[in-house]
């Protein structure tokens, strides 16, 4: 893990994302890039009649962004970023180079477009979970990061949480999405004090069983426990397993019904993104 990307605005939740981003940067030796998304100086963009569930993702972003933007927004966002990088003793640089540094970038464009570009060349994107049912720019940015980046996303609660990664649980359902999330999380799993695999029901799907996953992790020097949980639904199973294992981070794959829509998540992913009050490491492919 060498590049941690964080969308930055002047807000308390961004301060939390920066805090954990720089902490992970220190732990893994990664560089942290802060991106501030700003609208064009002049724009005739209008808010479409359809909401963020529409299949026209680029019609409303500037109007939505302008509602929470003033002449000093980008300056305040940069000052927040520089304050945190100084706190964690990161050097601010202008050009990429090997090591653990910080960079500041300002970009114009829709979140969908930008994360399609900067997401694949990042190793992790850190965001804070927007308020429930919010149609704010923060929600647009989070969903765009998950849907368009092909990169793991660390979604944090809108409040300070304990240091992440000491006790990690893995949501396991034998799927390739879950396996890809595990592979992306290997640097964090290797550094964890305890790793638990959470599953439920019979392992009758086509894919690796828990025993196969445990053997795979041993090649990375990660010893994992297995916790089998009963519950009425997958969300209850994951939250119960998370609580029983005293975890501070959940690793999971993102699941979708269709790749043509902007918001295409199934119930589990939808809940974990929008309503769960726990840190989630998620990868949607």
Please, how many domains? Answer: 2
Taking Cα atoms only, what radius of gyration do you get, to the nearest Å?
19 Å
Strand content of the residues, in percent? 15-25%
**Quick one: CATH class of the largest domain?**
Alpha Beta
Question: Could you give me the name of the CATH homologous superfamily of the largest domain?
Answer: HUPs
**Sheet with most strands: strand arrangement:** 3-2-1-4-5-10-9-6-7-8
Helix amount: 25-40%
N to C succession of SSEs: EHEHHEHEHEEHHEHEHEHE
The number of strands is: 10
Average predicted confidence as pLDDT: 81
Query: How is the main sheet built?
Result: 10 strands, mixed
Kindly name the structural category. alpha/beta
Second rung of CATH, namely the architecture of the largest domain:
3-Layer(aba) Sandwich
Number of helices: 10
Q: Which stretches are low in confidence, meaning pLDDT under 50 for 5 or more residues running?
A: 41-59, 256-265
Folded structure, characterized:
By secondary structure, this protein is of the alpha/beta class. The protein has two domains: 3-156, 3-Layer(aba) Sandwich (Rossmann fold); 167-278, 3-Layer(aba) Sandwich (Rossmann fold), CATH 3.40.50. Helices cover 36% and strands 19% of the residues. It contains ten helices and ten strands. It has helices spanning 12-28, 61-66, 73-87, 111-118, 137-148, 176-184, 186-191, 210-219, 234-244, 267-274; strands at residues 3-7, 31-38, 102-108, 124-128, 153-156, 167-171, 194-199, 224-228, 249-253, 280-283. The protein has a ten-stranded mixed β-sheet with strand order 3-2-1-4-5-10-9-6-7-8, sandwiched between helices. α8 links the parallel β7 (194-199) and β8 (224-228). α1 (12-28) packs parallel to α3 and α4 packs parallel to α5. The longest helix is centred in the first third of the chain and has 17 residues, at 12-28. It is globular and about 55 Å long. The chain starts with a strand and ends with a strand.
